[in-house]
Amino acid sequence: MKKLVTGATGFMGSSIVRELLKDGEEVKVLVRETSDTGNIDGLEVERAYGDIRDGDSMKKALAGCDTLYYTAAYFSHWTPDTKLPYQVNVEGTKTSMRAALDSGVEKVVYTSTNNTLGAHGKIPANETAEFNHWKTGDHYSMSKYLGEVEAKKFVSLGLPIVIVNPTLVIGVRDIKPTPSGQMIIDIATGQMPGYIEGGTNVIDVEDVARGHVLAAKKGRIGERYILGNENLTVSQYFGLIAEVAGVRPPRIKIPYRLAVAMGYLFQLGASITGKPPVVTASEVRIGRLQEWYDCSKAVRELGLPQTPVRKAVEKALEWFREHGYLSEQVK
Fold first, then answer.
1. pTM over 0.90
2. What distance lies between CA 87 and its chain's CA centroid?
3. Would residue 197 count as lying in a domain?
């Protein structure tokens, strides 16, 4: 039986496809007619065309598949259309999980995010942590939380779902790039002069991809698994990126209130230019809350790999340089 991967053209999804192919699995991918398929071109996969918000196309794509890797999502902390994250991340979840239930799949690996667990300070949070980002105004976080709530409802209906919550994911094939990849580029190119202190948990995208495959094989139905690795302060993480890139790290520690104000100014500029802001006010609010996590459950129960974060940064920088995101002068 085949494995269906939604979001397969993206950063995480394309790595999941590669992990499945390594294991000798037959893979089908759901793509839209307008998708940039550069991340999966040349791979031996079957393509089904459709959208996660279209139940009929999901059912057609699921034909002949026993496992669904549901990684498709609207991933951006800024959007000119604030309804879009909810249409994709909430309504898309409901439609796709219904299609999976009707199709009788044997396992669904549902890709959520650490944002649905909230941020709880310097004591690392585990899978029991509760969402606390309502006041941040971050539509990505809120829509992903509501999407995960909808996914959990289907467990009681008999759909065998395992939920995975990746933390800050970095690495190869970040073609968009994602906010985490853009952060690396901005530091390596000197475009991020300042920072606000906080905490983050970082993991290599290929470890996350393997974690998805392991979740399908070993994950317990209805359980969450945090797919993460090392907890770092923002200054430690930015310093590591700068060290690997051979540049000076951001040196200006920006006061919180000023950083929020700057986020609003960047958003205003984005609304005029249509280009994503350097940072949003909601990202500043979340970053201050310290996103540290206890990832031992996934390591213990799934065997989640733990590639050193320095190595993951090296791989990301090398890929960005080889694909023209960075100049050759950056190490």
1. yes
2. 18
3. no
